[in-house]
Design goal:
The protein has an eight-stranded mixed β-sheet. It has a four-stranded mixed β-sheet with strand order 3-2-7-8. It has a two-stranded parallel ribbon with strand order 5-6. The relative contact order is 0.17. It has twelve helices and 14 strands. 37% of the residues lie in helices and 19% in strands. The protein is of the alpha/beta class and 325 residues long. The protein has helices at residues 48-58, 75-84, 128-133, 135-140, 148-152, 155-170, 188-198, 211-217, 222-231, 271-284, 289-303, 316-323; strands at 17-20, 24-30, 42-46, 63-66, 68-69, 93-94, 101-106, 113-117, 143-147, 174-178, 204-208, 237-240, 246-249, 254-257.
Length: 325
């Protein structure tokens, strides 16, 4: 299989990977939502942007988070957690608002429940003016990761995603985009419209099937989904379809790839973000597409051994060992 070109290196590069998006306070309880009132809770920090950034850093990339966080009592430990995960938070902006949060209930069978508190959050204030303040970073870093969740937070956030994608594309950088369709956050028409705008600017679309694919490209067939996303203009497409199933379109054709099995699954929250962050990091560091995707699949498999979005961030040595590379 011919690999799509890896992101080009740049002299004086600022970062290997930038991640644009939302960071959330995570309140985790075991068991179903209806029993959450009787369960002990654990506070952590997650959100698709933090999950992907942590994975990219663990995979060896110099990684920075581009986000807006609040001024409440949890902001300092939130940023401390990101720093401990190896993510540079020096470019994060602050807003006099609370951070977004979510309640996560999960079990080992993958039956997860989520309740979000996002309205009026700091993260939802992301806007093109923030992108302007990060323009130099976006033009001098190798790769950017962002998502449909970020674009669905508010009209300003959607405009910010498009502005960042265009800047990176025009500068010759790599963009990884996960549509990450969330029907409670946005409608199908809006998600499809954003995807259509972003896809031609991307080096890699990472998406899930059937959840994203049914809503956005009208199929529950992962191979056909890869073809349809590719037809939108993305250079490469990776479609995850549950445990052990992955289709990769490298720009020529879609082929199936194995996913290492995790014998000790606990919680799949953030596994897709781990895949995207790891794959993007390895592309930015010069690995060919198929190898980068293999690392991403292995890291995602390992990540489900932890609870919550950043409960288990595998080291690159662990990822490489499971990938057999």
């Amino acid at each position: 299989m011919a690999a799509a070109p890896a992101p080009r290196g740049r002299s004086g590069v600022a970062y290997d990977v930038l991640v644009l998006g939302e960071v959330l306070v995570e309140i985790h309880v075991a068991g179903p939502l209806h029993a959450a009132a009787d369960a002990a809770a654990r506070i952590s920090y997650s959100g698709d942007a933090l999950n992907a950034a942590a994975a990219a850093a663990a995979a060896g990339a110099r990684t920075a988070l581009l986000a807006v966080v609040g001024d409440d009592e949890l902001s300092v430990p939130l940023l401390d957690r990101a720093t401990r995960l190896g993510v540079d938070v020096s470019h994060v902006r602050r807003s006099p608002r609370p951070n977004g949060a979510y309640l996560l209930c999960s079990d080992t069978d993958g039956d997860r429940g989520f309740v979000y508190w996002r309205t009026g959050s700091a993260g939802s204030t992301l806007s093109p003016r923030h992108i302007d303040s990060w323009r130099e970073l976006l033009t001098t870093s190798t790769a950017l990761v962002t998502s449909g969740i970020t674009g669905a937070l508010a009209p300003g956030a959607r405009a910010a995603v498009l502005a960042a994608a265009e800047i990176v594309h025009e500068a010759g950088g790599h963009l990884s985009y996960d549509p990450n369709f969330r029907p409670r956050l946005t409608g199908r028409a809006a998600a499809r419209a954003l995807l259509a705008r972003v896809a031609p600017l991307t080096g890699l679309i990472k998406t899930s099937c059937p959840a994203d694919a049914l809503a956005l490209v009208d199929t529950d067939d992962p191979r056909l989904a890869a073809d349809r996303y590719r037809a939108l203009g993305a250079r490469a497409v990776a479609v995850t379809a549950g445990a052990g199933r992955l289709w990769l379109h490298d720009g020529r054709r879609a082929t199936g790839h194995p996913v290492p099995v995790n014998p000790d699954p606990v919680d799949a929250t953030g596994a897709g973000d781990c895949f995207t962050g790891t794959t993007t990091a390895r592309l930015a560091l010069g690995d060919p597409l198929a190898r980068a995707v293999a690392y991403g699949a292995a890291a995602a498999s390992l990540s489900v051994s932890g609870r919550g979005g950043t409960g288990r961030v595998p080291s690159f040595a662990e990822t490489a060992a499971l990938a057999g590379l």
